[in-house]
Design brief:
Layout lengths: L1 E4 L7 H14 L5 E5 L1 H4 L9 H14 L7 E5 L5 H10 L4 H5 L2 H12 L9 H15 L5 E3 L5 H18 L7 E3 L34 H9 L17 H14 L3 H5 L5 H26 L3 H29 L6
Parallel strand pairs: 1-2, 2-3, 4-5
The chain binds tryptophanyl-5'AMP.
The site of tryptophanyl-5'AMP has 25 residues, from strand 1, helix 1 and helix 7.
Length: about 325
């Protein structure tokens, strides 16, 4: 099992319910690898002095949500140079046409164009991003990739790339599949429930961060956008706001959104209950996060160990791929 997360901004409820929680649940049965993908963050990070700090904070958050360094291998992508090396080979295996069809590139480049401070620069890395992501996954002979719905297209293109490489050069890569949770696979913005909760939203008021104080969480849920009729039912197309609240509540409490709807006749109590369920979920995570951040040396040493373990696997796969492609050994 492998999955990764970018160190760009604070971790939000979508990341947690869509992905991180399943990484934690799966770490005991699986050989689990999880990367903090700083090379992917470079596609949009231009300021100096932010990436290292964001990487360390994200590491603390991954341990705080329950990843155990003795069970799962947590590493920083740039500490495992095989990612960049196989990434190039993947760029040569994916086509320009395939990359132009990726919705993430279309969305992110359109967002940058809307913003006057970033409009003039869309990096080539943002375009070739899926090739590096394919390398992340294929390096670990990954069967399962636990992700939110938004990453499905990236896992599909990884499969296509692996199939093409295997076809050209002989069986080299394991074909991975995406695994998404029943509830929480697509957490929507509380202010704009037709868009996914995302770090690149224009305002923070619809995003719930894992480090938000209880008062802030309460306020965000209280102001969540619903609709003008007042019926509580689960219907993503007709009632996106209400359905999102039901789904968040279901993901926190373990119920099913359709069944939970029957317990409400008004929006107010649903908003309040969803908010309280999230506060309860976040409290122990926040306490562990703040404790872990007091010892940065220990965090860095855990990441160094993780990179060492990751390289043991990644180096073997890279060598296999290079040999398959007929490259002259060094
Ligand atoms: P990233 O950093 O945007 O998100 C990390 C994880 O959080 C999930 N997620 C969501 N799930 C439900 N609802 C949401 N609103 C929501 N927002 C985010 C994402 O699906 C993801 O699982 N390209 C990836 C990073 C990556 C990767 C990989 C993932 C690079 N290499 C290899 C898996 C395997 C990304 O930008 O995720």
């Amino acid at each position: 099992m492998l999955s990764c997360i970018q160190p760009t901004g604070d971790v939000h409820l979508g990341n947690y319910l869509g992905a991180l929680r399943n990484w934690v649940a799966g770490q005991h049965e699986n050989d689990a690898f999880h990367g903090i993908v700083d090379l992917h963050a470079l596609t949009i990070t231009e300021a100096p002095d932010v990436l290292g700090q964001a990487t360390l904070q994200l590491a603390a958050m991954l341990f705080a949500v329950g990843l155990d360094p003795d069970e799962a291998t947590i590493f920083v992508q740039s500490h495992v140079p095989e990612h960049s090396q196989l990434g190039w080979m993947m760029e040569c295996t994916v086509s320009y046409g395939e990359l132009t069809r990726m919705t993430q590139f279309k969305d992110k480049s359109a967002k940058r164009q809307e913003n006057t401070s970033t409009a003039e620069f869309i990096s080539a890395g943002l375009f070739t991003y899926p090739a590096l992501q394919a390398a992340d996954i294929l390096l670990y002979d990954t069967d399962e990739v636990p992700v939110g719905e938004d990453q499905r297209q990236h896992i599909e293109i990884t499969r296509d790339i692996a199939i093409r490489f295997n076809h050209r050069f002989g069986d080299t890569f394991v074909l991975p599949k995406a695994v998404t949770p029943k509830a929480g696979a697509r957490v929507m913005d509380l202010q704009d429930p037709t868009s996914k909760m995302s770090k690149s939203a224009n305002t923070d008021s619809g995003l719930v961060y894992l480090l938000d104080e209880p008062a802030a969480v309460r306020k965000k849920f209280k102001r969540a956008v619903t609709d003008s009729d007042s019926e509580v039912r689960f219907d993503r197309a007709e009632k996106p706001g209400v359905s999102n609240l039901l789904e968040i509540l279901a993901a926190c409490t373990g119920g099913a959104p359709e069944a939970l709807a029957a317990g409400y006749t008004q929006y107010g109590p649903l908003k309040a209950d969803a908010g309280e369920a999230v506060i309860e979920l976040l409290q122990p995570i926040q306490a562990r996060y703040h404790e872990l951040m007091t010892d940065r040396g220990e965090l860095q040493s855990l990441l160094r160990k993780g990179a060492g373990k990751a390289r043991e696997v990644a180096a073997v796969t890279l060598a296999r791929a290079q040999a398959a492609a007929g490259m002259l050994p060094a």
